[in-house]
Amino acid sequence: MSTNASNFQAHINGQPATLSELIPLAFAGFAHFTAMQVRDREVKGLDLHLARLQKASKEFFGKMLPEEQLVSYIRTAIDKGPKDQSLTVTLFSSHGEFTAASMDAEPDVLVRSSAPANGPKGPLRLSRVDHERPLASIKHVGEAGKTYYLHQALRQGFDDAAFVDRHGRLSEATFWNLAFWDGETVIWPQATILQGTMMGIVQRQLNRLGIAQRHEEITIERLQELPGAAVMNSWTPGIAVTAIATTAFAEITPFISLLHKAYQAEPNSVL
Questions:
Q1: What single DSSP character describes residue 17?
Q2: How far is CA 189 from CA 19, 89, 133, 164, 266, in A?
Q3: What 3-state class would DSSP assign to 59?
Q4: In the chain, fewer beta carbons within 10 Å around the N or the C end?
Q5: Do residues 107 and 91 make contact, with C-beta atoms less than 8 angstroms apart?
Q6: Model-level pTM greater than 0.85?
Q7: How many beta carbons lie within 10 A of that of residue 264, not counting itself?
Q8: What is the pLDDT of residues 210-250, one digit of tens each?
């Protein structure tokens, strides 16, 4: 697997991006994106990525690009890059931000490739932070808070941070969804969160496997009654969490294995 940086490219609207096109994007805070892993030129959960982009485009720009156009841009990046890679698909307005012109503009599409990623091995210990992400249901750029709280967690001796909302409910981690295990059922936090594409894949495949799931409001106090916890994102379907703040969890291998089994059951999409 080659990870030579020269193998990875950036395309805007299906064409190789020029330096003059990329420079303004260094300060592009009004944009949304999705991130996916490509293996052997195939991806999982393509429908979830497309639905995410369409929903966010409607919210941000008042219009959606044709789905086949998005697929074409993603296919171009996959065909031009290594068979294994990470892809980030970002929709932005060429009018920039802090302007009314971007309000009802047809978005441009940046597809950027980089080395494939599988996430950290874990387990992870998470600090507790009182924080609610703005526009939490949209995967958007410009969220300095996530990296800030990651850094704060590292300084405190943790590996990352979990967020607690104004109602005292755990919602998500910096760039992870949270999942919990009560010994029989996978529990998803009931709060305002970003519905991750990996989370969507795992949920629908757990349904097909007949595994019980439910949503529940999870407080810090409730954590003491739950034997297992995990995080997931586009890198991985499950990494064990062995602490959130002062609450410790066992590293429950069957729970993590179940999350990975669900992900592996998801069929690949060939673009």
A1: P
A2: 42, 27, 15, 11, 23
A3: helix
A4: N
A5: yes
A6: yes
A7: 10
A8: 999 999 999 999 999 999 999 999 999 999 999 999 999 99
